[in-house]
Amino acid sequence: MKRQFDQIAEADLHCHTTASDGLLTPGELVELAWQKGLKAIAITDHDTISGWSEAELTGERLGVEVLRGVELNTVWEEKEVHILGYELDGKSKILQEQLAELQESRFIRISKILKLLRQSGFSLAEDDVFKFARGESAGRPHIAQALVEKGYLADVKEAFDRYLGFGAPAYVPRLKLNTTDGIRLIREAKGVAVLAHPGLQRLEKKTIASWIKFGLQGIEVNHSDHNRQDQQFYGHLASQYNLLMTGGSDFHGDNKPSVQLGRWGVSMEVVRQLRGLENCKQVREEVGN
User: Fold this and answer.
1) Which domains are delineated in the chain?
2) Of 248, 240, 247, 264, which Cα lies nearest the Cα of 8?
3) Quick check: 209 and 241 in contact, CB under 8 A?
4) What pTM did the predictor assign?
5) Quick count: other Cβ atoms within 10 Å of Cβ 105?
6) Tens-of-pLDDT digits for all 289 residues of the chain?
7) Strand partners, 83
8) How far is 79 from 110, CA to CA, in rounded Å?
């Protein structure tokens, strides 16, 4: 297998696998990281940690450092806010219970969406959807894939634009944690809590600062959906509050063909800071003064 060494970053800290809505298995993802010359990668699937073990085994074989991560979908004042958790304790009871509840809510949501789609004239069964969901976190992307396979729609984008996106005929809200509860969950599971792609939600300084006292430790500054202004704004904000500046591609495979693994990310120095985040424990006290 030829290695390419064509990416800018040393570590990509935001990646999805078939454990949620990515198209590569955890092992395949790590192999791709190795092929591109990445030194480290984080597995951050939605609401599940089931991809960790396979990724770590492949990482050990190829010499790619694998960080244990998760991405939680939370809500704050009617905005969807994603929180990344890194280096969590997978045996944490509170983490396992909350992830199980989120998984159960996904199954209920899919059933409701399929009912609405049937009312719109689409004959789609749960089996048609779950064959695309190779991991625990089934969701709308898998429903979109099923609609395309059945020949009902041209592509995944059309499925979201016409039926599955917010405000569309088959849209069903997802069970979400409050953002502060999501941060607390990660911290209670001994993880590092990082705000994901704040530029997508145009999150303001005051809002982000209010989460620091609940345990927020970092901001994802470098991301595939951030422009230069986003990077400058959120980078300055992270520096102002002594928060870790992380980065990642939000890689999903061909589900997001324009997003290349390793094209967005961080240096290994940031990985070392993340793994030993002792210096950020004082942030809560500093902000409170």
Assistant:
1) 11-90+179-288 (3.20.20.140), 99-164 (1.10.150.650)
2) 264
3) yes
4) 0.83
5) 14
6) 556 655 579 999 999 999 988 889 999 999 999 999 999 999 999 999 999 999 999 999 999 999 999 999 999 988 889 999 999 999 999 999 999 998 888 888 889 999 999 999 998 888 888 877 766 667 788 898 889 989 999 888 899 999 998 889 999 887 779 999 999 999 999 999 999 999 999 999 999 999 999 999 999 999 999 999 999 999 999 999 999 999 999 999 876 778 999 999 999 999 999 999 843 443 443 443 3
7) 72, 195
8) 21
What is the per-residue DSSP string for 264-283? S-B-HHHHHHHHTTTGGGGH
User: How many Å apart are CA 45 and CA 212, to the nearest integer?
Assistant: 23
CA distance 62 to 33: 10
Provide the b/e sequence for 25-47 (b: ≥16 CB within 10 Å): bbbbbbbbbbbbebbbbbbbbbb
Tokens found for residue 119: 């009312």
Instruction: Tell me the H-state helices in the chain.
Output: 26-36, 52-62, 93-119, 126-130, 140-149, 156-159, 179-188, 198-201, 205-212, 228-240, 268-275, 283-288
